[in-house]
Amino acid sequence: MPQDRYATGLARLREIDGEAGERVVASLADIAPDFARYLIEFPFGDIYSRPGLDLRSREIAVVAALTALGNAAPQLKVHIRGALNVGVSRDEIVETIMQMAVYAGFPAALNGLFAAREVFGEDAVAAS
């Protein structure tokens, strides 16, 4: 069973984040390989693989949550890229982040918008 969770999680991670997600996991190999495994099994193998929400909806929710936290810019950037990868538009991402100003405050929304601008800029550079 644990190997199935890992395989399912790794497939889902690749679907959402491609190589970026795998780099995060690889970066933990020398300090916390068990944590890297947990990162694959629980969020992606168990939660992201549940029925009930499609990947677009899940990534919109994650962008909102990470924006609201206000202290997770690296993770927010990964999930903004993931949201784009699963079909969320730039406008939808910006609107999601702006909505968080109501519930998490303007500083959190500003930080989220700056993270989105950075990701969108990286995409523009990569496309050229």
UniProtKB/TrEMBL annotation:
What Enzyme Commission number(s) apply to this enzyme? 4.1.1.44
Q: What's in the keyword line of the UniProt record?
A: Lyase
Q: Does the keyword Zinc apply?
A: no
**GO MF terms on file?**
4-carboxymuconolactone decarboxylase activity; peroxiredoxin activity
Q: Which residues form a coiled coil?
A: none
The keyword Lyase is annotated on this UniProt entry: yes
Carboxymuconolactone decarboxylase-like domain residues are: 33-118
Record's PANTHER family?
Answer: 4-CARBOXYMUCONOLACTONE DECARBOXYLASE FAMILY PROTEIN, GAMMA-CARBOXYMUCONOLACTONE DECARBOXYLASE
What is this protein's name? 4-carboxymuconolactone decarboxylase
**From which organism does this entry originate?**
Azoarcus sp. (strain BH72)
